[in-house]
Design brief:
By secondary structure, the protein is an alpha+beta fold. Helices cover 18% and strands 39% of the residues. The longest helix has 14 residues.
């Protein structure tokens, strides 16, 4: 079957209140469309030792965006807005492109090898203790994935988190 290159929002059973989303990959399993009420994207930023913004954002399949600003944000409290459903579909496809659904559940330390003075390799582990974490979650149909990202996380996953923030529009309430 040819991979669908463009996300399509379609009606199921001809009923306007039940919509389905079709993404361009079988990375989520199953062959059929997924109802928009089975789609959620969550992003949370945790506290750090300094003045890091602490907030969460929920994006529902219908385009509803719910922001809860807790600390060090420009607009504390509860805010809501909407984005186009096509934008939600593009976020799901971005997650597929970033291999989010096959990522590790946490990126809290990084292991690298260093060359020692006597020409041997030595394993070094780098951990982050004072930085905020980003918790990114996608639920698409029956597939749920939660990944904890710290500064040592792969760049493509950090970029996905940034894309979620940009597309959702919550940065206006953060900065």
């Amino acid at each position: 079957m040819k991979i669908i290159r463009n996300a399509i929002v379609m009606l199921l059973l001809g009923c306007a209140s039940v919509q389905a989303v079709e993404v361009r990959s079988n990375a989520l399993g199953g062959d059929g469309p997924i109802s928009l009420d089975q789609v959620e994207i969550r992003l949370s930023r945790t506290a750090c030792l300094g003045e890091c913004p602490v907030y969460s954002v929920l994006i529902r399949g219908d385009g509803t965006v719910v922001f809860d600003g807790e600390q060090w944000v420009a607009s504390p409290g509860h805010r809501e807005t909407r984005i186009p459903v096509d934008a939600v579909v593009e976020l799901i496809n971005a997650a597929i492109d970033a291999r989010f659904f096959s990522a590790a559940s946490a990126y809290t330390e990084r292991t690298a090898f260093m060359l020692t003075g006597d020409g041997r390799l030595e394993r070094r582990t780098e951990s982050v203790f004072d930085a905020a974490s980003v918790v990114l979650e996608f639920r698409v149909g029956q597939v749920r994935k939660r990944v904890v990202l710290e500064s040592v996380a792969p760049a493509h996953l950090r970029a996905l988190a940034q894309t979620v923030e940009e597309v959702s529009g919550v940065l206006a309430w953060v900065r």
